[in-house]
Here is the input.
Amino acid sequence: MADYCIQEFERTHSINLASSWGDVDLCIKISRETFSSLNEHHFKKCISIMDQVLQDSGLQKSSVDEIILVGGSS
Here is the structure.
């Protein structure tokens, strides 16, 4: 699903989001700008946590090649 989302953003700068909630299926198309705006606080929180981890570990950003975020909804 993540690969599909990335490909859609690169191709059209919009994405179809599909979700099921109870007996209701929802499919909407949003722009990259809307997606970013809706999730800005989540992105900032992730960046803040990563900055704190770097500070606590004494590492510089330049010494990190990649960060993989994992998790899911509950």
